[in-house]
Amino acid sequence: MGDNNLRKKAYQFALSIVDFYKLMQNEQREFVISKQLLRSGTSIGANIEEAQYAQSRKDFIHKLSISLKEASETKYWLRLINDSYQLDNIKIVQLLQDCEELICILVSIVKKSKFNSDT
């Protein structure tokens, strides 16, 4: 997958996280966990953007590794919200699927980049 597609996917995911955060604030009156979700879910794309202007291959890998960690944290918060609030909401299922897809893409890019930097 090209970098532009990843950037677009991460940006759309961040927009979806913002929308879900607003829903949690308004409907569930949940302020703590949803704030954590907002922070980590929007950080994924921000770090991908930073990676585009990395100063070296090592810096690029580092930025994408941070994105991967943020994606993993986001998945945790989504699962916690889903299990603790028992939401009958297809939106969270879609967010979990999108997050998992971002994780898979990031893992692939980080592994490939590490392999290419070793050769």
From TrEMBL:
InterPro entries (UniProt xref): 23S_rRNA-intervening_sequence (IPR012657), 23S_rRNA_IVS_sf (IPR036583)
Ranges in coiled-coil conformation: none
Superkingdom of the source species: Bacteria
Pfam family, one: 23S_rRNA_IVP
PANTHER family linked to this entry: FOUR HELIX BUNDLE PROTEIN
Name the record gives this protein: Four helix bundle protein
